[in-house]
Amino acid sequence: PSLAKLFASHVFLTLAKLQRKCLTRLLVCEHPFAAHRRRFLHDGTPPDWWICRFCRDVRCVEDEGHVLFECVNDGLIKARTRAFRDMLTIHPPLEYVLPKRTDVWNLVRFFARHPRLLARFADFVHTTFKMCDEVPMIIITSQNDLA
């Protein structure tokens, strides 16, 4: 659904306020991940220098897809595993859907049809946002910093 339809949907409106807020921040790109925050620094750094604060791998840009689905940081892996295990308990066919949908928008579209999945996903997003508050963003401004 479009954002307007999603935000007006019964499924979205039945979420707790914190869950709605986290999903809204994620979907309108007001999240704490570097891919969003660095855009506003206007320091001329290229996006491939926005490396992930969690895994610190220079090949990994800290964006929604990386943090939520790919990052190999132990804390993120534990949070992701717990969230998706809970979601599989709620909706076992999800096992066949998840490997095909690593795009945030596609997953939210799918979860929007399943209120309990959307709520659990929102909790997971909230957890990742809290982790961003605890780990400072990596600021790379030169090739020397990157090396």
UniProtKB/TrEMBL annotation:
Organism: Lentinus brumalis
Protein name as annotated: Reverse transcriptase zinc-binding domain-containing protein
